[in-house]
Specification:
heterodimer, A: mainly alpha, flat, B: alpha+beta, five-stranded antiparallel beta sheet, 6 helices, 16 strands, binds protoporphyrin IX containing FE
């Protein structure tokens, strides 16, 4: 199999994701519930996407952890998987797909312009900690993405973009609780990711923590999650304020995951 | 009843109660969750400052952490939530434990580098080191020998696996052999020795100072292939007055950038030795007369640069981290299992 085939399959996956997102948006605008179509398209996209990543893995002999293209691609897959699971298991929040899926378009667009060439697989990656550390991070980001979807519903409703469909969702208080629970899960997995990362760093670089830019921003992200949880518990902040804080956490987490590794030249990039 | 006798006692109790109350009031205020939010934000700012300015590595982080710990301990003392929710309490206490362990680690750690030529031993001396003020390890007693290493390279000079054989003495004084590299350090008396990308060539010499016995040693040239074009170093033989400049002039491709390859010693090379204005080329076995002794070129060897790290808190940090995550998970589990989200 060549890279051409992998990219064609990836394109097909992207088309399926985009169709799922567009269908979800149209559903909300028209007040319809094309939920089975959205679910089917998302699952089709996931299957195609997973096989594209699998073929590339097979060809290169290593997982999608090195280049921007690979990291974006694998994160789109894990985020879509997290959201599709939530979509499937929690039918009452399905209308949030009209927000979350278009949000994914940003990453898809970025993925399509990233260079799909191959990178250097550093020797420090030959360890199970690679999968544990990265996998935990993906669960964290997925949980926060679901919280973001729910938060956007709260904010849109408040902004008066009430649309018939959104008013059918559970009330703000319940959505707020759901978003809070997603953030709680996120905190547990983020903590685990930091621990796994520290163990790996001790093995690979001889120090468990050194405040390199990625470590620094990952810790700041952790603090913002702690901040959000406390603010909600201590001040009973309104659902809208809580939702805004969750969006802020997502932005910081997103920049940490996809911005920092590509602007800094520190060892966290792995190579040499 | 005689009021005159009772009154002072009553006053004293009242004053004590008032003092108690104001003490508790202070503690309450210190335990404020509003303060927690402020301090969490302060810590985030401190971390970003510490990251930006290397000379401000300590205080911007230590001060908010100390305040957070005080804030938290005050909350543990006064906030009923922690008495009712054990898992939450355990979680927060393990955060304090983590902070204390990190502090203890910073006071007693050691970090350093040492380069060891193949066949030579570590003698307890580091080339560079940095240690906490209360470091009390037994580095002087640590001994091991670098028994040679291999480093694979993929096309494009992409470094692959490093395998380094080391010989070391165990607690009973017997020599043991292990292979370290990449993820695996050699751990002796709590000191962890990690192989690094930093490695290269080392011409070894015999040096006989006039009237003394011959000693052998090596000159570690700059890291290879990183410093491919500056394979030179200056060095003064032990006890000599003359500085010797040596350069390795390699006449072949050692690590082929277009093929799978490995780090190895060059076969075709010249060793250029300069003493003052004189320039010599030496082959293994050649001897050179210096003003105060005789220098013999024994041959070329490899050397490995090790990163050295000592921190006794590592297993405790891991344990505290594990307790933190398990108790955090338990807390949320109990809380969420008690009622569904869409109730
Ligand atoms: C520094 C990192 C910290 C993290 C990650 C953290 C995390 C948490 C979490 C996850 C909860 C549970 C929220 C819930 O289940 O409702 C919580 C609750 C709480 N935290 Fe922290 N905390 C931190 C620091 C502190 C500090 C410094 C204090 C000191 C005041 C504190 C005081 C509390 C209190 C009193 C609660 C219980 C609130 C309630 O349930 O009413 N935390 N914290």
């Amino acid at each position: 199999m060549s890279m051409e085939n992998e990219l064609q399959i990836l394109w097909a996956a992207v088309v399926a994701y985009v169709l799922a997102g567009v269908t979800a948006v149209i559903g909300v605008i028209l007040g319809k519930r094309p939920e089975r179509t959205v679910l089917a398209l998302s699952v089709a996209g996931l299957a195609l996407h997973a096989s594209s990543i699998g073929l590339r893995w097979e060809r290169l002999g290593h997982g999608p952890f090195i280049t921007m293209f690979e990291i974006l691609s694998s994160n789109v897959l894990s985020l879509m998987l997290a959201y599709t699971l939530a979509y499937w298991r929690i039918p009452r929040i399905r209308a949030s797909a009209a927000i979350v899926l278009p949000l994914m378009f940003v990453m898809l667009g970025w993925l399509m312009v990233a260079h799909p060439g191959e990178g250097h697989y550093p020797p420090t990656y030959n360890t199970p900690w690679l999968y544990i550390h990265i996998g935990l991070g993906k669960v964290f980001l997925g949980a926060v993405l679901v919280a973001v979807g729910v938060s956007c519903v709260i904010l849109l409703r408040r902004a008066g973009i009430g649309l018939r469909r959104l008013t059918q969702l559970p009330g703000d208080r319940q959505l707020d609780e759901l978003a809070f629970r997603c953030m709680a899960i996120g905190l547990v997995f983020h903590s685990l990711m930091l621990i796994a990362g520290a163990i790996w760093a001790q093995d690979a670089w001889g120090r468990y923590w050194d405040w390199d830019p990625l470590e620094t921003w990952a810790f700041v992200t952790w603090l913002t999650v702690a901040f959000t949880l406390h603010a909600r518990v201590a001040f009973r902040v309104s659902p809208a304020a809580h939702a805004t804080m969750i969006l802020a956490v997502f932005v910081i987490a997103f920049l940490t995951f996809f911005g920092v590794p590509f602007v800094s030249m520190t060892p966290h990039q792995g190579a040499v | 009843m005689n009021h005159d006798e009772v009154a002072p006692a009553g006053e004293g109790a009242g004053a004590r109660m008032a003092a108690d109350r104001s003490e508790r009031g202070l503690l309450r205020r210190l335990a404020s969750l509003r303060l927690t939010l402020g301090l969490l934000a302060l810590l985030a700012v401190g971390i970003l400052i510490a990251q930006r300015f290397e000379e401000a590595r300590t205080w911007p982080i230590v001060v908010p952490l100390a305040l957070l710990a005080a804030n938290l301990l005050a909350a543990v003392a006064t906030n009923g939530v922690f008495r009712r929710q054990t898992a939450l309490l355990v979680f927060h206490l393990s955060l304090v434990a983590l902070v204390l362990l990190v502090a203890a680690g910073r006071l007693t750690y050691l970090k350093g580098h040492v380069g060891i030529t193949n066949g030579a031993g570590f003698d307890g001396e580091l080339a560079i080191d940095e240690r906490g003020p209360w470091h009390v390890g037994n580095l002087d007693a640590v001994r091991f020998t670098n028994d040679g290493f291999s480093v694979g390279y993929a096309p494009g000079w992409q470094r692959g696996a490093t395998r380094n054989t080391v010989l070391w003495r165990d607690g009973d004084g017997r020599w043991q052999q292990s292979v370290i590299g990449d993820q695996e350090p050699l751990v002796l008396a709590g000191y962890r020795f990690y192989t690094t990308f930093n490695k290269g060539f080392a011409p070894t010499f015999g040096w006989q100072r006039d009237g003394a016995t011959t000693v052998h040693g090596s000159v570690q040239l700059p890291s290879y292939p990183l410093n491919e074009f500056s394979q030179a170093a200056e060095w003064t033989p032990p006890g000599s007055r003359v500085a010797v400049w040596v350069m390795l002039d390699i006449d072949e491709v050692v690590i082929d950038p277009h093929a799978h390859s490995a780090f190895r010693l060059p076969q075709a090379y010249k060793l250029v030795v300069r003493v003052g204005d004189e320039r010599h080329e030496m082959r293994p076995g050649d001897a050179l007369r210096l003003p105060d002794g005789t220098l013999t070129f024994d041959g070329l060897r490899g050397w490995m640069g090790y990163r050295v790290f000592y921190d006794w808190t590592l297993p405790w940090l891991l344990a505290a981290g594990a307790v933190a995550v398990v108790s955090l998970g338990t807390h949320f589990w109990q809380k969420f299992a008690a009622s569904p989200w869409n109730r």
